[in-house]
Input
Amino acid sequence: MLMSDPHKRDRLHHFRHANFTTGELARARQLVDDHGKSLILPYDQFIEHDARHLDAASDAGNPHYIMELARDGGYTGVAVHYGIAARYWSRLEGAVPLIAKINGKTSIPPQDRAFSAFTASVEDAVRVGAVAVGYTMYYGSPRESEDLPQLAGVRRECERLGVPLVVWAYPRGEAIDRKGGRDTSYALESAARMAMEMGATIIKSNVPQAAGAEFLSNPEAPKYFRELERELLQTADDEAMQTRVDRVVAAAQGIPVLFSGGSEIDDDDLLYRAEVCVKAGCLGFIFGRNMWKRERGKALEITERLKTLLHEAE
Amino acid sequence: MLMSDPHKRDRLHHFRHANFTTGELARARQLVDDHGKSLILPYDQFIEHDARHLDAASDAGNPHYIMELARDGGYTGVAVHYGIAARYWSRLEGAVPLIAKINGKTSIPPQDRAFSAFTASVEDAVRVGAVAVGYTMYYGSPRESEDLPQLAGVRRECERLGVPLVVWAYPRGEAIDRKGGRDTSYALESAARMAMEMGATIIKSNVPQAAGAEFLSNPEAPKYFRELERELLQTADDEAMQTRVDRVVAAAQGIPVLFSGGSEIDDDDLLYRAEVCVKAGCLGFIFGRNMWKRERGKALEITERLKTLLHEAE
Amino acid sequence: MLMSDPHKRDRLHHFRHANFTTGELARARQLVDDHGKSLILPYDQFIEHDARHLDAASDAGNPHYIMELARDGGYTGVAVHYGIAARYWSRLEGAVPLIAKINGKTSIPPQDRAFSAFTASVEDAVRVGAVAVGYTMYYGSPRESEDLPQLAGVRRECERLGVPLVVWAYPRGEAIDRKGGRDTSYALESAARMAMEMGATIIKSNVPQAAGAEFLSNPEAPKYFRELERELLQTADDEAMQTRVDRVVAAAQGIPVLFSGGSEIDDDDLLYRAEVCVKAGCLGFIFGRNMWKRERGKALEITERLKTLLHEAE
Amino acid sequence: MLMSDPHKRDRLHHFRHANFTTGELARARQLVDDHGKSLILPYDQFIEHDARHLDAASDAGNPHYIMELARDGGYTGVAVHYGIAARYWSRLEGAVPLIAKINGKTSIPPQDRAFSAFTASVEDAVRVGAVAVGYTMYYGSPRESEDLPQLAGVRRECERLGVPLVVWAYPRGEAIDRKGGRDTSYALESAARMAMEMGATIIKSNVPQAAGAEFLSNPEAPKYFRELERELLQTADDEAMQTRVDRVVAAAQGIPVLFSGGSEIDDDDLLYRAEVCVKAGCLGFIFGRNMWKRERGKALEITERLKTLLHEAE
Amino acid sequence: MLMSDPHKRDRLHHFRHANFTTGELARARQLVDDHGKSLILPYDQFIEHDARHLDAASDAGNPHYIMELARDGGYTGVAVHYGIAARYWSRLEGAVPLIAKINGKTSIPPQDRAFSAFTASVEDAVRVGAVAVGYTMYYGSPRESEDLPQLAGVRRECERLGVPLVVWAYPRGEAIDRKGGRDTSYALESAARMAMEMGATIIKSNVPQAAGAEFLSNPEAPKYFRELERELLQTADDEAMQTRVDRVVAAAQGIPVLFSGGSEIDDDDLLYRAEVCVKAGCLGFIFGRNMWKRERGKALEITERLKTLLHEAE
Output
């Protein structure tokens, strides 16, 4: 009987909780390993953060270095902008699957009205060889009325070409700051949910942090989340963190979630966070600076440890 | 003689007071039951209100749960955004008709210049299997000059594809606030009328509330409505409420009206309001939070009572 | 658990053997009854055959009469060209689902290079309220190089709008005639298969007939089918007929098949054929002339008998 | 140093003799195994040859069976038309890469002016999840002036979406027949070269056969090829065959060549031919009827032997 | 063996560190001399700076004069806007290759929200005879959300037509000013990197300057760059300057860099800067005012010295 082979089903087991199209699934298959898990190396930070990342223990500014790191580390994908895809990733000739990031913004202008503009199109991404498209949605930004239709258009194009859409679900802007900030459970759960409602195939989220004490009495934050924070404040740290991450995964309602690493942290922290995310049932990780700013040997070593963590999750 | 069967005519009796196209009628037929009444379960609140609705007596955050609730409750439609339609509603394979909501906004940025941006297109809605399209019009918003042409474009697309257009006729923005607020008869009657003038097939309205005492002397509110409020203040509550709801239905001038439930209220309140709306001659209800935030058994129970109310209206 | 209700699955049980999109399924649902069976009244013969059909025991030339017949007989669909859809079906306001036939040809020019040209577009069909589109493919016609791309374009439009595509899989043209004729198993199986390969949602086929003795020695007919005919010649008629019909259904490989009635036959013949088709596992019938050329009372009576047959199939 | 890993280079070693784009290479990578070889299961014969292939030792008419055979046999691709891709291949969710065949013709009308018409578009292919597109070019057909621009358009679309273009390089039509026939070295070398000149990524060719004695004196056949045939007639059969196959590969000038199996032959013949093709440096095989018309066990067994042959080639 | 001639490789040796398309390379070849170096005469300053440049030791305002200067000085290209290309450069009939500058802005409105608008299209450029297109990107401008998609569109058009894209990578706007200014290493490295990420074929950069002392304590400037500045302050001037220029070339990661001359400086300064740039491995120079505002004889003389410098670099 067709589809009866359990191993084949397993490879896409994170994509069984909601409907996906054939094109999405056939291509998502390339972004996961035999265990159905993803480990993505994102390298769009030189657009987002300026050239400061040249300050690294590795050859971090060199796209050739990054591509080799992805290949040698057995990553299931890299996420880069068009120029890097066309000029550097192309030399790998598809050896590591490509998520082409198609919008971005710099760190230079004020971030209070954050908006991520096109650096390429879905068709560009497909042409250059991408198996998926990456889009940054700024949840809650005052420019959401430009962002949402832009994302809807990207989603439509992705459907037209059968391409998975990975949404960076990022709360941003002055209103989010006023209501508790981009790293709160409130903001991240809502952003993950929004990405799902917009039709994301895969959702990239940051790991939520405890809101500060002032959040509890912030009249602009919804009562429900203030009570949640109050409750979590009284919970052991580990348990609270697990709850926070579990809730982001739950907010995505079966749309697979990749957790990002955020700014550089030490090995123990990284692995601890990763473990929490794995327990929460994430699809995998999309760790950039924490990989390519480390010295190459250390980066490969911690990559192996992440893969072990992911595979033990089964 | 053709068309002689009285029962068949009955099914679309709410659509006899104005002209509708064949496509609209053929599809509106699917949104009503044998009595010609609609009971719609809207589930777009996780975009409009953030993830706070996870706090519910039910599995409210789970779209699969919601779809099953709609099916088991015998709803004549669900109203959801594209992501939920494509990923979750799709599993019902049309068992409950779909109204695809194609615009939205979050609760995060200030609401004084409210504008609801596209989350999908009319064509997306049709492709995924929708029998109607939902659009939020913010009557009186400072951005109405963007909203009205956008709505006109949606109406045109709906006509091109023969699809009913359900307009969420919502007064919003700083000017409405200044002139009495979004829940006044003044605002809601005007919004319902506006939706009709823009070509809505069906109008969704909130139930109007008494304006506060300050409205009577608010120089920005029109004299006519200040006098109406003064008069209604001197009327028995029940009668005043009936008048308010009757007036919204009258403002729509034969374009069928669905009343929404708004924020959560208790059973008695809900049923009382519903009865008023039925008496006013509404097409039916579009109650979301008041259904899916209730515990499932209670939600199904009150659903039955609403259906009974609707059917007794004939 | 979602989808666990066996009854709901049953309604689309003919659509479980291959993949269909959500739009297709949500609309196919309207073309089947509670038993998952279809009974379609086609009325495109005044284009295909000229006005000869005015010669009927009923008011066959009157589209109003036909529409009422479909409604009163409880048909799950009518299949008509655009003019009739827009002018007459529209009065039923969707009471009987519409399959809009979008191509046709007359009986006037020679049929040796048969080609069925557009009488309307998929978008026309959707706008007027159709839940499905009908297309005639002339398998084996010398003009197949015009027909196949035209059909591919219709299929693409149907996908764009989520609409089921019903393919009239008709062998036609001088080459088919030379190779045994349009009613052979050879021709009809190949045509049904072709419709499947082109992406049909539902396939309309005629009931195959025994090829004449000359087929056995026709050097242009494939050896395989000559041997099949030889074998069936030596089989009891009933069994041979069952085999022929079974084979058409098998050729469609799980894409649901509707059998047409062809030219007028008597009641016994009609019911006998229908029974064979039901045993073969067809989706239902699409009987035109055999219905609307009969006197109305008789047509309704035989309609009931067909429905009984279909429902007993479960 | 990037690209220094010899194994990774090896995987695309058949694509080193000419320029290919990144999109082509990234996707061609999926069509080859770790040895850089391809084994493709084509299943477009029910369009090309009618339903005669139901006569098989296996469940050959069932696309689900074929897809499972491809998966279990470890094929590096299947080649099917759109309907099968969308309805059946889709259930494999990309487990076996897809070459979507986008043009075809039936065996019914006369073949003297052969032309293969669109059954789908390049964009359809990509959307449904294909990694490559298949196109049949009829070299020498009187309708070449329709065929060549159509192919040029397909090639352009393939470039726009970065998709490899596999050209079925088939001599056909009355003129080819008059000049020696479709299976001559003359015809097949010329067709392979034509495919290369039109921009094919991969060329599918049949294995050339000795032209008959009448070819030597056929005034319409070019002198060069008549002399070649004369010479090969005086050569040992094995050597002549090797020369013929070598020449097809040479005609493609570094564009990778897949050899097809043609009509069913016995195991020894098949393996003998395959060995000749491997020696000639082919990319691999695209054997259909010789696989899926065999009983499943035998098909899998001979599949293994083909893979062994291919891998010994390195 | 193809490509084995070392001299031919040398001519494009600056284009060996990343992937470029054939169209780009075939045309880039015309922008370099036998040593693979570029010397471009830009003449777009009458748009950017108003007519102030009429004040020159030469006939600077006369495009005919400029074109002749380029030809007589042996420049490998001129960069001008469409009007000059069509009216004046055209008389050279391709004697000096053309880079058509297709966007610009005047010096008149405030520069805090700098945006460079189209003065022509890529297709205009190709039609008039350009071998490359020039585009000004304002890194960090508050209008980057308009600039980046515009640049992405230009890049896409350049690819469609196989044309090299020369990006003027210019930091600009109020935010850049606040964070240290347009001539800092911080700004120029980040801008060069951005141009690479956007897909530039060649990057034009200014020579970075030491940030002022206040930069060291500017909280808006990234810590990494403040530390870099601190370090360079303690380094000998020559070495610091070499480091700065080296870093811009490194930021471009193998995408060839042209350095501009900026405002007029004296001969020694000019040659000193040029030498530093050559040592850093630049592709060449794009010096405008420093050429055409000099008296013709002097301009030609210093041109020769620049060429000598460039050629000694090998």
In short: DSSP finds 15 helices and ten strands in chain A. Confidence is low (pLDDT under 50) at residues 1-9 of chain A.
